[in-house]
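Supplementary Methods. Inverse-folding protocol.

Structures were first reduced to a C-alpha cell string of length 856. This string, shown here, constituted the complete conditioning input.
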C-alpha cells in the first residue's frame, strides 16, 4: 500500500531536469522513478560490444538514503549520455532496484558497453547524489531555522532591536543577514514577549543564519549543474569537494548557536525533569557535532567528506528540534503539565506572541494533542523532534506552515521607511505646524514673498556648486530624456530661478524638502525640510547680511529651542588667512572643506587630511592651526585682528573682510543680538558658492550638529545668466530643530503636560444607531460657525466618552443626542475636562451653537 501512495519522478523526458528535491524524494523512499518513453526510444537497440564487469561501486559506509541518491544520479547520467553508446538494460535495472522494496543494491555481474563504462567511472554519481541530499536538507533547514530562532527570541526575552540596524542603507550591508532579519521581524511582528535583554546568541542570529544561506546557495548551484550535466571533463570531485568543505564551518556555527539558545530556553522550562532531559540530549548532540565537523574538515576523500557532512547536517537538525522543543515548553509553560482545574483558575495574563510565532506554537500544540493527549514531557520531546525531522510525515506540513507565514508577507512584507527618512503624525505634526507658522510669520515680517521650485532640477544645474559635497546629490534614472537630480538645497534652485527670469532684486522665502545621499545618523537625514530666506540685489553695504543673521536669531528665539550660538566668519578672511599661511590659491576651496570638519574632528585629524590627502606641508598646516583656534566675541576678536602689525591688515582680501565685518558687527550690537554671535575663524562652510560672510547656528547641549547656516553668494546667480546679482541667505535645518523640540515635548509629557494631537473643540455624540443625518445636521452647523468639530454615531455610550477623553487628543465639549434628546428636539452640552466639568441639558437645537460659542 505504501508503494501505491508514492509520487513518481520521471527522468529522461525532453526538456526535463532533475532537482535535489526530486533526488531526495526518491532517496528517502517517498517517490518512485519512471523513465520517460522517449528516453527509452533514444537508447540504442543495436548490439554493442560489451565490456565484462564495471568499476562502479558504492562505499559500504553510506546510508540507504545516500545509496539510493547515488543510483538516481547514475540513472540520470546514463539517460543524459550519448544515446548511441547506452542500452536500455542498465537504466531499467537501476530503475527496478530503486522501485523495489528490497534494501539490497547489488547490480550482480553486469556486462556494460564502453559508453556505459565511462558513465559509471567518471560521473561521480555517489558524490553528486550525496551532495544533492545535502543541498535539499540544508536548503530546507535554512527555511526552518529562522522560525525556531524566533521562538527562542521570545522564550529568552531577548532584545531584537539590533535586527533593524543591519541595513545601513548605503548598499554595502550583508544582504543575507538583512534578509534573515526581515524574516525574523515578520515572524515576531506584534510580539510583546521579546524583551530588552542583550543576549549575544540572539543578536548574532542574522549573521550566522545569513552566512549559512550564502554557502547553501553555492551548494545548490553546484548540485543543480552537476545533476543535469553529462559526463564531461574532469575536476568534478575537486570542485564539489571545495564547495562542501566551505559548508563545514557554517553548519557547525549554526548548530552551536542553536545549542546555546536552547540552553537559555531550558532555564525557562517549568518541569525540572523535562529541563534535565532536554539538556542531556542537547549536550550529547553538540559533542557529536563538534567531533563530526572536526573529522569532516580533515577528510581528503570527497565522497567520505560528503557522507560525514550529511551526518553533521542530521545532528544539526536534531539540535534545531531540541531548541524548538525547549522554546516551545518555555513559552507554553506549565499549561502542558497542569490539570484543567488549575488552568481554569489561573487568570495570569500571558505575553502576546508574534503573529508568526503564535501560529507555530499553536501548530506544535495541535500536533502533540492529536498524537497523544496523555503523553508525558519526554514523549512530547520525541514528538517535536519527529516533527522537525525532514524525513517524517509531519515535517512537510510544518515547512508549508512556516513558508506560508513568511511568504504571505513577501509582497506585503512589514513595510519600513528608507534610511534617513521619518513619518510624522499626531503630536509631532502639531509641533511641526506650529514651528512652520512661526517661521513663516518671521519671514513675512521682514517683507519676503513665498517661492516654490521643482523638487528635481537638471543635473547640470546642480553639479559644480557644492564642492566635495556634490557626491551627495541624488541622481534620477535616465528615462530617455533629460538627466535630472533631486535638489540638494534651495539656494541653487533660487539662483536658477532669478537668472532664468531676469530678477535682479528680491526678498524670498521657501519652505520645502531637499535630498542628500548622506550616511544617516542622529540628526542627519536623507530627506528633510529646509526653511530658506534670501535677499538678492544691490543694497547698502552689509545691510542684507546683518538682516539675515538678525532673522536667524529671531527664529531661534521664537522657536524656544534653548541656548544657542551663531558662529560667524568671512570667506575672504579665510582666503586671506590661507594666502598668508602659504596655501596655493587652487587649493583654497579644498582646504576650506577640511577646516570645515573642525567641529567634528580634532585638529590633528584635520591636519593629517590636509597633509596626506591634499598635499600641504606640515609647516603650512601648523600655521593654519594657529589661526583657526581663534574665536570670541565679535568686536573683541575683530579689534585683535585689526591691531597694528597684524598680518591680516597686509592682505588685501582679509582687510576687505575685516572692514565689512566691522560694519556688520556694529549693526548686530545695536540690534541687541550680537550676544548670540561668536566670531570663529575655524568656520569654513564647505560649499563652493560662498563669497563673503558665512555663519552657522548650533544649539548648546544638543548633539544634532548645526541647526542653521548661510552666507553671501555674489557669483552664484551669474553662473546661470548674463548678469551678476549679489545675494545673501540663510537656511534653517528644521528637522534638527524638530528633534530638539520633540525632546522637550517628551520632558513635558513626563510632567503630565500632554501635547494635543488634534484641535477638535466639540464632539457631536449621536447615541443611537443609523442616525447619520442627525450628526450631519448638527456637525455642519458647528463647522459653519468656525468651530472645530467631529461626530460619532454609536449606540454604546462608552465609545463616545473613550473618544472624547483619548490621551493626547481630548475634546473638551460634547453635544449629546440620545433617545430623550431626539424625542424632545434638544441637545445636552457636556464639558468633560477634568477639574472644570459642566453639563447643560435641554438646549434647543436652534440655539446650541450660540450657547457653545459663549462657553468655548
Amino acid at each position: 500500500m505504501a508503494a501505491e501512495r508514492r509520487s513518481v519522478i520521471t527522468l529522461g523526458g525532453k526538456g526535463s531536469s532533475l532537482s535535489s528535491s526530486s533526488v531526495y524524494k526518491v532517496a528517502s523512499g517517498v517517490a518512485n522513478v519512471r523513465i520517460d518513453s522517449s528516453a527509452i526510444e533514444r537508447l540504442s537497440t543495436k548490439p554493442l560490444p560489451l565490456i565484462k564487469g564495471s568499476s562502479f561501486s558504492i562505499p559500504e559506509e553510506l546510508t540507504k538514503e545516500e545509496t539510493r541518491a547515488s543510483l538516481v544520479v547514475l540513472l540520470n547520467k546514463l539517460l543524459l549520455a550519448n544515446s548511441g553508446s547506452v542500452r536500455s538494460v542498465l537504466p531499467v535495472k537501476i530503475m527496478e532496484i530503486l522501485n523495489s522494496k528490497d534494501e539490497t543494491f547489488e547490480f550482480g555481474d553486469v556486462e556494460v558497453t564502453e559508453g556505459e563504462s565511462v558513465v559509471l567511472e567518471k560521473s561521480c554519481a555517489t558524490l553528486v547524489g550525496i551532495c544533492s541530499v545535502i543541498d535539499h536538507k540544508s536548503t530546507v533547514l535554512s527555511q526552518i531555522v529562522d522560525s525556531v530562532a524566533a521562538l527562542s527570541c521570545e522564550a529568552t526575552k531577548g532584545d531584537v532591536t539590533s535586527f533593524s540596524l543591519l541595513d545601513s542603507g548605503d548598499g554595502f550591508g550583508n544582504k543575507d543577514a538583512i534578509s534573515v532579519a526581515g524574516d525574523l521581524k515578520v515572524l515576531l511582528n506584534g510580539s510583546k514577549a521579546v524583551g530588552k535583554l542583550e543576549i549575544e546568541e540572539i543578536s548574532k542570529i542574522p549573521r550566522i543564519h545569513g552566512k549559512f544561506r550564502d554557502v547553501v546557495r553555492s551548494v545548490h548551484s553546484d548540485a543543480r549543474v552537476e545533476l543535469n550535466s553529462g559526463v564531461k571533463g574532469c575536476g568534478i570531485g575537486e570542485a564539489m569537494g571545495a564547495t562542501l568543505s566551505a559548508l563545514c564551518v557554517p553548519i557547525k556555527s549554526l548548530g552551536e548557536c542553536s545549542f546555546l539558545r536552547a540552553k537559555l530556553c531550558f532555564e525557562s522550562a517549568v518541569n525540572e525533569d523535562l529541563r534535565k532531559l532536554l539538556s542531556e540530549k542537547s549536550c550529547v548532540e553538540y559533542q557529536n557535532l563538534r567531533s563530526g565537523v572536526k573529522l569532516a574538515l580533515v577528510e581528503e576523500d570527497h565522497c567520505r567528506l560528503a557522507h560525514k557532512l550529511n551526518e553533521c547536517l542530521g545532528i544539526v537538525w536534531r539540535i534545531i528540534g531540541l531548541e524548538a522543543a525547549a522554546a516551545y515548553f518555555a513559552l507554553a509553560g506549565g499549561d502542558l503539565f497542569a490539570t484543567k482545574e488549575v488552568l481554569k483558575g489561573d487568570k495570569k495574563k500571558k505575553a502576546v506572541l508574534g503573529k508568526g510565532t503564535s501560529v507555530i506554537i499553536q501548530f506544535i500544540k495541535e500536533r502533540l494533542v492529536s498524537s497523544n493527549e496523555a503523553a508525558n514531557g519526554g514523549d512530547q520531546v520525541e514528538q517535536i523532534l519527529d516533527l522537525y525531522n525532514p524525513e517524517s510525515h509531519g515535517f512537510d506540513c510544518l515547512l508549508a506552515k512556516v513558508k506560508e507565514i513568511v511568504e504571505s508577507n513577501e509582497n506585503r512584507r512589514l513595510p519600513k521607511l528608507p534610511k534617513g527618512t521619518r513619518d510624522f503624525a499626531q503630536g509631532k505634526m502639531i509641533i511641526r505646524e506650529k514651528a512652520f507658522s512661526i517661521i513663516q510669520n518671521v519671514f513675512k515680517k521682514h517683507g519676503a514673498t513665498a517661492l516654490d521650485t521643482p523638487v528635481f532640477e537638471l543635473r547640470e544645474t546642480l553639479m559644480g556648486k557644492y564642492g566635495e559635497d556634490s557626491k551627495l546629490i541624488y541622481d534620477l534614472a535616465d528615462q530617455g530624456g533629460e538627466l535630472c537630480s533631486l535638489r540638494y538645497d534651495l539656494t541653487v534652485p533660487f539662483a536658477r530661478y532669478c537668472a532664468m527670469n531676469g530678477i535682479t532684486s528680491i526678498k524670498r522665502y521657501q519652505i520645502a524638502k531637499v535630498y542628500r545621499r548622506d550616511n544617516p545618523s542622529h540628526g542627519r537625514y536623507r530627506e528633510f525640510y529646509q526653511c530658506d530666506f534670501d535677499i538678492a540685489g544691490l543694497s547698502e553695504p552689509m545691510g542684507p547680511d546683518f538682516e539675515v543673521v538678525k532673522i536667524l536669531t529671531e527664529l531661534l528665539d521664537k522657536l524656544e529651542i534653548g541656548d544657542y550660538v551663531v558662529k560667524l566668519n568671512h570667506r575672504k578672511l579665510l582666503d586671506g588667512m590661507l594666502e598668508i599661511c602659504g596655501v596655493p590659491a587652487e587649493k583654497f576651496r579644498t582646504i576650506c572643506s577640511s577646516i570645515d570638519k573642525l567641529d567634528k574632528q580634532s585638529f590633528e585629524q584635520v591636519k593629517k587630511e590636509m597633509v596626506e590627502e591634499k598635499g600641504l606641508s606640515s609647516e603650512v598646516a601648523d600655521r593654519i592651526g594657529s589661526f583657526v583656534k581663534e574665536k570670541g566675541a565679535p568686536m573683541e576678536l575683530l579689534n585683535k585682528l585689526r591691531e597694528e602689525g597684524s598680518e591680516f591688515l597686509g592682505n588685501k582680501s582679509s582687510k576687505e573682510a575685516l572692514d565689512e565685518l566691522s560694519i556688520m558687527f556694529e549693526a548686530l550690537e545695536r540690534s541687541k543680538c550680537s550676544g548670540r554671535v561668536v566670531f570663529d575663524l575655524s568656520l569654513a562652510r564647505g560649499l563652493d558658492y560662498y563669497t563673503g560672510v558665512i555663519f552657522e547656528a548650533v544649539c548648546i547641549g544638543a548633539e544634532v550638529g548645526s541647526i542653521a547656516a548661510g552666507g553671501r553668494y555674489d557669483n552664484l546667480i551669474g553662473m546661470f545668466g548674463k548678469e551678476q546679482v549679489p545675494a545673501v541667505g540663510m537656511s534653517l535645518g528644521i528637522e534638527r530643530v524638530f528633534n530638539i523640540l520633540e525632546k522637550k515635548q517628551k520632558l513635558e509629557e513626563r510632567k503630565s503636560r500632554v501635547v494635543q494631537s488634534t484641535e477638535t473643540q466639540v464632539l457631536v455624540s449621536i447615541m443611537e444607531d443609523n442616525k447619520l443625518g442627525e450628526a450631519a445636521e448638527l456637525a455642519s452647523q458647528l463647522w459653519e460657525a468656525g468651530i472645530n468639530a467631529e461626530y460619532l454615531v454609536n449606540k454604546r455610550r462608552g465609545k463616545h466618552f473613550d473618544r472624547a477623553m483619548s490621551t493626547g487628543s481630548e475634546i473638551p465639549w460634547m453635544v449629546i443626542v440620545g433617545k430623550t434628546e431626539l424625542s424632545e428636539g434638544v441637545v445636552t452640552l457636556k464639558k468633560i475636562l477634568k477639574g472644570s466639568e459642566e453639563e447643560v441639558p435641554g438646549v434647543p437645537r436652534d440655539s446650541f451653537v450660540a450657547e457653545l460659542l459663549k462657553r468655548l
